[in-house]
Amino acid sequence: MSYSSDLYQQVILDHNRKPRNFFAMEDSTHHCEGYNPLCGDKITVYLKVGNGGVIEDISFNGSGCAISKSSASMMTAFLKGKTIDTAKSVFESFHAMVTDDPGFDQAKSNLGKLAIFEGVREYPSRIKCATLSWHTLISAIDDKKEAQTE
Amino acid sequence: MKVDATIREIDIETVRKDFPVLSVKMGDNSIAYLDSGATAQKPLAVIERMKEFDSHQYATVHRGSYRLGEEATQIFESGRETIASFIGAKQGREIVYTSGATMSINLVAYGYGRKFIRRGDEIVISDMEHHANIVPWLKLCEETGAVLKVIPVTETGEFDESAFVKLLSARTKLVSITHVSNVLGTVNRVKELSALAHSAGAKVLVDGAQAAPHMKIDVSEIDSDFYVFSGHKMYGPTGVGVLYGKYDLLETMDPLLTGGDMIERVTFAGATYAPPPQRFEAGTPPITQVVGLCAAIDYLSAIGMETIEERERELLEYGSDLLRKIPQVRIIGTAPGKAAILSFVVDSVHPHDMVTILDGEGVAVRGGHHCAQPLMDRYNIPAATRASLAFYNTTEELDRLSAAIRKAVALFG
Question: Which residues on chain A are in Cβ contact (under 8 Å) with B350?
Answer without folding.
Answer: 64-66
